[in-house]
Amino acid sequence: MSKQQQLRVAVVVGSTREGRFAPVVTQWIKGHLDQRDDMGVDVVDLGETPLPTVFPAFGQPPAPGTGEALAAVSPRLAAADAFVFVTPEYNHSFPASLKNAIDWHNEQWHAKPVGFVSYGGISGGLRAVEQLRLVMAELHATTIRNTVSLQHAWGLFDEEHTMKDPECDAAAKAMLDQLAWWAQALRDARAVRPYAA
């Protein structure tokens, strides 16, 4: 499949915490995406592309410098056909950095599918995902039913950051297969009839 035909997947790394485990999880799911000929990947790491946390008043222009910060993220989200959110669970929810990035954007999410790779302790980040489903529905996105939930994630990878549990690899493939179906279907639909929110 040519690069033009490939589905463009933006992997959004939600954690910005110092010492975060997110890079390990991100490289693992990126490896799955790299193995596919139907998908191309762009990792949007919010730790490397921080966005402002103060929003302008309604109808007012954003503060100086905001445009430059958004320029490192917004065009990449707009270009994506689909998204994978890599998120930990903080206090039964997802990180403020991820909510901030979501809220800075709107039409970039419209009529596009979102898959989730969550990680954490005993819950595997599932409570973060459940809240993200509500948020993304408000933004006219379609969330993928299958998720990848890494329970006690720190013990799932060896010293080389290689996944030790084949069931997690199988879950990643199943989620990405569903993501590909929805991404293709929605891309075709948007080409025929632009989405109106």
TrEMBL record:
GO terms for molecular function: FMN binding; oxidoreductase activity. This is FMN reductase. One of its GO terms (cellular component) is cytosol. Pfam families: FMN_red. PANTHER family: CHROMATE REDUCTASE, NAD(P)H-DEPENDENT FMN REDUCTASE LOT6. It comes from Streptomyces glebosus. Transmembrane segments: none annotated. InterPro entries: Flavoprotein-like_sf, FMN_Rdtase-like_dom, NAD(P)H-dep_reductase. It comes from the Bacteria. Residues 8-154 form the NADPH-dependent FMN reductase-like domain.
